[in-house]
Design goal:
Blueprint: H1 18-37, E1 42-52, E2 98-109, E3 114-121, H2 132-145, E4 150-155, E5 174-179, E6 188-192, E7 200-203, E8 212-215, H3 216-227, H4 246-258
Parallel strand pairs: 3-4
Antiparallel strand pairs: 1-2, 2-3, 4-5, 5-6, 7-8
Helix pairs in contact: 1-3
Length: about 260
């Protein structure tokens, strides 16, 4: 069953499911681009790796909150009512350093042995100010923007702080940014509202080749169907954080009722 939403599905943004969504989007996108670009180019999945620990502000969107389990009694209290009750242990989650891997797509010219374009789909930690995930992403972003490689950034998350672009943007929930080597520092941005379908985005290649047309809505729909998210998501619950804009609360409720999801 397809998603009831015409564009991005806000229920897919929940941190608990987003890693799976991100993985599926990468896989579907890679398959579609390879269909379009073979044999001139190949598309591969590469990873950016960083370490997150208990001091990382982005930790809360990477791992579940610290949870305390019910205490387990290891011994019976003494029969003497005047004695002090025994101390009972509890089970907690130990916060340790964790190696985080975030995938991106690289479009490669195998004959020249160079990367023509990089496609990034942002994750929640990339949008938390001061986090290791944002630091890692920003460093790679700077490297690409000062190189001869095109950059496509896809932000399908309403929460967090957006990556900086020069100039104001209209109100939007989602964003796509295409930075062509020959146009820098200027780039093209698609500001997307929640009720709108995701756009078809041109992916720049070598100057002698036409752009690859990447239909993001088709990509999302295929990922949704492949992963069976209709069996996972509970549309009876309020949308996951962040809260919907006031103008979208009623629209979302009516949409889900019409599709019999509520």
């Amino acid at each position: 069953m397809p998603s009831p939403f015409p564009g991005m599905d806000p229920y897919l943004e929940a941190p608990s499911i987003w890693p799976d969504v991100h993985h599926e989007l990468m896989s579907v996108m890679r398959g579609r681009l390879n269909e379009l670009l073979r044999p001139r180019y190949v598309v591969r999945i590469e990873e950016r790796v960083y370490v997150s620990d208990e001091n990382d502000p982005g930790r809360r969107v990477i791992v579940p909150d610290l949870r305390i389990a019910h205490g387990v009694r290891t011994s019976q209290p003494p029969a003497d009512s005047t004695s002090i009750a025994t101390v009972e242990p509890i089970v907690v989650t130990t916060m340790v350093e964790e190696e985080i891997r975030e995938a991106r797509l690289e479009i490669v010219d195998p004959r020249a042995g160079r990367v023509l374009a990089i496609i990034e789909v942002l994750s929640p930690a990339n949008k938390v100010p001061g986090s290791r995930g944002r630091e890692s992403y920003s460093r790679k972003r700077r490297d690409v923007l000062t190189s001869s490689t095109h950059l496509v950034e896809i932000d399908l998350l309403r929460g967090g702080e957006r990556m900086m672009v020069e100039g104001g943007l209209p109100a939007c929930e989602y964003l796509v940014h295409v930075s062509r080597v020959e146009d820098r520092p200027q780039g093209t941005v698609w500001p997307i509202r929640l009720p709108q379908p995701l756009p078809v985005v041109p992916v720049p290649l070598a100057e002698t080749d036409p752009d690859a047309a990447l239909d993001l809505q088709q990509i999302l729909n295929t990922a949704y169907e492949n992963a069976g998210y209709d069996l996972t998501l509970n549309y009876g619950d309020p949308a996951p954080p962040p809260a919907l804009r006031d103008e979208h609360v009623e629209w979302c409720d009516e949409l889900l009722r019409e599709s019999k999801q509520r």
